[in-house]
Design a protein that fits this description.
single chain; 594 residues; alpha+beta; 6-stranded antiparallel beta sheet; 5-stranded mixed beta sheet; 13 strands; 15% strand; rod-shaped; disordered N terminus; disordered C terminus
Length: 594
Amino acid sequence: MNADHIDVPADRGWRRFFDNPTPLMKQGPTAIAVGVAALLVAAVPGIPMTIPAAVAVGVVAVAAVTLLAAVYAARGVFDGWFVMLIPIVDLLGIGALRAGTGGASSLFSSLVLLPVIWIAAAPGIRQVFIVGVFTSIALLMPNLIDPPEDAVDWLRGVIGPLVFAVVGAIVNELARLHRLRTAQAEARTTERTAALASAEQVLAQLRESEHQYRALSESFTSLWNSITGQAVIATNNCGTITAWNPGAVRLLGMRVREALDDVSVDRFFDPEMLEQFVDSGDRDPADRLHPGLRALFEEADSGRSVIADLDVRTVGGSAVPARVTVSPYQDADGSRHGYLLVITDETRAVEVARMKDEFVGMISHELRTPLSAIIGFLDLLQNDPAQPLTTEQQEFVAIIERNAQRLLNLVGDLLFTAQVESGRFPLERTDADLTTLVRDAVASSQPHARGAGIELIAEVPDAPLRTMADAGRLGQALDNLLSNAIKFTPSGGRVTAAVHERDGGIELSVRDTGLGIPEDEQGMLFTRFFRASTATRNAVPGVGLGLTITRAIVLAHGGTMDVTSKEGVGTEFRMFLPTAPRTEALQIITTPHS
């Protein structure tokens, strides 16, 4: 069905034609009746014609206005006071015809009713008064030509117009009601036509939307089926699986039909590994979902994507190292419908990392032995009394020793990072005073700071701050941070090392007024071998292992480490050590939404 092509009943056009007739159509009955009357007067001897001139005037008047009505109809003029002159002249012409054919006894007195109906049907109550006035003239016309002596004859000329006025009033009201109903019907027809056109437009829009939805659905299905490298799983709020992509079939070994049969997603995770995310007060006996996975869901509800390194279990029972990303999914109005889990198989990445660490460890061990031998023989060469070195030779040997020691330190750092990555990172915890630790680290770095023209300050409390920690490793972490701060701070700047109690633990910090670190690079600072653009741009020496080692030491103590930096203003590194040490495995890796 088309909005521009609407079925119309066959008689609709005829009804519209008669609902708004032309002046000629309205004049037609009167003209025909008067014409017939004229023929009867001329052809029938029994009809009296008392005043031939009056008959002729009446017939000519009606004929003239009939011609005028035809002109108006041809020009499309349907309304106006000049159109209403036609039935008024008809009344006068019929009055003359009546006066010329016997007056009150004329056979044609009833013809007055035809123009009366035309006048009365026009809008407005004034038409009733027009009917009364001109019917009086028409009916009293014989009396005006030949005044009667009997008062009753004059009375007939008054009562007749009153009757016609009443008839006109009735016709006027009926015509008004007809026009009202016609207008209402036309309005309803217009509304229905507009509603039909609107419905057609909505239907066309729905068809277009349906087409777009099908195209979008097909595109989504194609995209969904093409994701085979990662397992993408959707769940409801209770953790029951609602969507299972081909990647999940490949990784976890369960077919789509089986996965959607009321399966809880936590069956694919090791319960012991999920326990690390559970706080003591987070268990709800009524919740069938594992509390560790519920903790990850709640973390995602806080507005952050949650990333956790976990082993997932396949249907066959084998464990696969994976990185799991959890995020809530919502509809357009913000209502949450569940969670989306993206599981990436990290088997290859873990194997590559293991091989890389083994390679680094092997190379480091292989390098340490000859470097130690070189340094030992250099020491013998410098201190051999039998063959003392010249001053120039002493300088050359010192350069060789310095660079060999530098290589040995680098090898030590590489070995240390390999130990961290492999989990073989022992701590020797003792009762350590962190206040003394900071003072000693600042004292050790003072010569370096003075040589660079930098003010080095220790902000420590008077009372000792003690905790169970590996003082040697923490001293190494502080030395790394102080060394970096001095290297990245121009001459005339300031470096401050501080320690104080905070939130049930102890915070150590190193703050400088140096070059700063670009904001978009701060997330990679603790990556092995990463160097900030400010370091490369200003030719600051280093290999990018110091911060990695420092963070590993802090995490091994169950602490956390963060950084605040603004380029051109300075940088502050903070290390927080809890009084009750935690382990790194209990930390949830989270990244805020950008």
